[in-house]
Design goal:
This protein has 246 residues and is of the alpha/beta class. It has helices at residues 25-36, 48-60, 75-86, 112-133, 159-179, 199-202, 215-226; strands at residues 16-19, 40-45, 65-69, 93-96, 142-146, 185-191, 236-239.
């Protein structure tokens, strides 16, 4: 007897995803992966000029992608974006990826303005995007917060970045428990050294090391987690280079 052949599941087809900070690096890799799997993917960046070519490249490949300007530190900007997303009729996936770092500096020498900018982007921006996205999300939705190993680490000279990521981890863990009754999954993405431009902000001598992971490897792990049945969740996704160091 010939076994019955069933069509392959397509868990992303027709869904809508918003990816913040998606003009490059891990955000761009995740956005591209989701679009290739059938999502309508909204590519956001503080600079529309940076987001637009990414979306155009995906559309040229026959995929569904849109670009939008988004400053995650501005409540008005975040509110406007998700008001626009509402017109699409649904929001299934939110990838909170936007983040910045700072040059290594001890606390005594760290400019208070830099401190505020880091927390506004990496911590408050995470809250704002989640706050305005949640009314558009329903059971089966998912939120992925890109946190970095800094959410567990203590790296001298990086107090602003460390603090923002430690706070973001606490926020993520609390959010997960709040959203369990709504059956919205929350994933803490905790990647180790990855070959992105953010390294140029605080450790340029280590940037683009061949020992780092690629953004595409991180993106593959994220979409694999999101492809699980909706009654299962990988609560924390930790990744690091196979060498263990850079």
């Amino acid at each position: 007897m010939v076994a019955e052949t069933r069509p392959l599941a397509q868990p992303f087809l027709g869904k809508v995803a918003v990816v913040t900070g998606a003009s490059r690096g891990i955000g761009q890799a995740i956005a591209s992966a989701l679009a290739r799997l059938g999502c309508t993917t909204v590519i956001t960046s503080r600079s529309l000029a940076a987001a637009r070519p990414v979306a155009e490249g995906l559309r040229e490949a026959g995929l569904h992608a849109k670009s939008a300007e988004l400053d995650v530190t501005s409540e008005a900007s975040v509110r406007e974006l998700f008001h626009t997303i509402k017109k699409l009729g649904r929001l299934d996936i939110l990838i909170n990826n936007a983040g910045v770092a700072h040059k290594l500096a001890p606390v005594q020498e760290l400019d208070p303005k830099v401190w505020r900018d880091i927390l506004d982007t990496n911590f408050t921006g995470l809250f704002l995007c989640t706050h305005y996205a949640l009314p558009l999300m329903s059971a089966g939705g998912a939120i992925v917060n890109n946190l970095s190993v800094a959410s567990y680490g203590t790296f001298p000279g990086h107090s602003g970045y460390n603090t923002s990521k430690w706070g973001a981890l606490g926020f993520t863990n609390t959010l997960r428990e709040e959203l369990r009754p709504r059956r919205i999954r929350v994933i803490a993405l905790v990647p180790g050294p990855t070959d992105t431009d953010i390294w140029e902000q605080f450790m340029p001598e280590a940037a683009h090391s061949s020992k780092m992971m690629s953004p595409e490897s991180v993106a593959q792990a994220v979409v694999d987690c999101l492809a699980l049945p909706e009654n299962a969740v990988v609560e924390e996704l930790r990744m690091r280079p196979i060498t263990g160091t850079i």
